[in-house]
Amino acid sequence: xxxxxxxxxxxxxxxxxxxxxxxxxxxxxxxxxxxxxxxxxxxxxxxxxxxxxxxxxxxxxxxxxxxxxxxxxxxxxxxxxxxxxxxxxxxxxxxxxxxxxxxxxxxxxxxxxxxxxxxxxxxxxxxxxxxxxxxxxxxxxxxxxxxxxxxxxxxxxxxxxxxxxxxxxxxxxxxxxxxxxxxxxxxxxxxxxxxxxxxxxxxxxxxxxxxxxxxxxxxxxxxxxxxxxxxxxxxxxxxxxxxxxxxxxxxxxxxxxxxxxxxxxxxxxxxxxxxxxxxxxxxxxxxxxxxxxxxxxxxxxxxxxxxxxxxxxxxxxxxxxxxxxxxxxxxxxxxxxxxxxxxxxxxxxxxxxxxxxxxxxxxxxxxxxxxxxxxxxxxxxxxxxxx
Length: 387
Known about the structure:
By secondary structure, the chain is of the alpha/beta class. It is 21% helix and 28% strand. It has helices spanning 23-35, 69-83, 93-109, 116-135, 187-190, 202-211, 231-234, and strands at 3-5, 14-18, 38-45, 86-91, 142-144, 149-154, 167-170, 193-194, 243-247, 252-256, 279-284, 289-293, 299-309, 320-325, 333-339, 351-360, 367-372, 375-386. The strands form 4 sheets. It has a 6-stranded antiparallel β-barrel.
């Protein structure tokens, strides 16, 4: 695929920077100010304070949703005040509760494995946050974040349409690449989005931040969307439905207190004893069954993805070859992509993705993201794993 890199903000541009208090977004704000941009910092307020403190009184760190949000906001506020940067906190708590947390619970209770970061980026960080900024009457030329990704524009129209939308491409530092999380951001939103760290290695980010004396360089980085210790609280709004844990032949191996505690590929915390390692093979939400199997039984030849999205909403007009990632940590694998139905497919319809080599633990609810030459050309939510 031939494409050109989208130009980064220039001196004199007004740039909105999404800030979390971490080293990446803080460095982005500093670099843009040094470039001569007028920087406006914004932070999402997500935490509703609705989960109780842990019994042992521990203070948790390193998550997007948690009680340390106030400390993150204060760190952003202090940095911006020191540098004379306008700073605003945008309240998106209700949207986050409805579109991310409630979705997360519903998906697990349906026996699926959701990706809250994909959901948050498309609906909250690049959705509700920007609407809140607009409601405040704030004008800007570009919206920048500390994500490790790039924005590019194809030289030719996508799928022969003549449309050349801004598209997401992988970061230069592939070990930190976050393009996978961003595939559902609408093309019209991407027109103003820039990722200044897309060509920068993570180790260089720390070096640059320390050279500028940024406090954020010494702060712990976020690893999860929610502290694991809070997940049980999240599901405490209603009791789980008990059921059986079985093998592929239907033999009962044990019992569980709710399918929401399991995900495809899981090995630990299964609550059964065995002379060999067992893994979650599948989950039957209707019968409240968790099915375990040997590792080799988790290999799949492909998948069906629905709720598919495409750049500029242009749906491919024929089957095509690409690479696919079935989770953030998986390596891209060559695949054939074709519509489930023979006729032309509308946006959101189901597509079959056949792997060139078997993939392990394809989890319904996760995202299958499609790449050509390291540029995201589409993706969808996994509905079915194919043997």
